[in-house]
Amino acid sequence: MLTNYQLANIEAEIERLATEQEKTKAEIRQLEAYINPAKSKLNRLLAFDARLTDCIRMRQAAVMQLKLKENLVH
Fold it and tell me: Coiled-coil ranges per the record (predicted)?
């Protein structure tokens, strides 16, 4: 059977853990506020990079076609 002293220690530990958890949650919220805008910008840049890659590949294919046609004519 637990004594009042042991129960008080357990309750104090619970309070300490709850306080630590609140600090952790606050830190998580701060990090999310910092990370989300950067993540959004990263996603926009990745999408733009993909479009540029597609554009480059299409132009490379067009150049290759022109070179092949030129070789067929000569």
Answer: 7-34
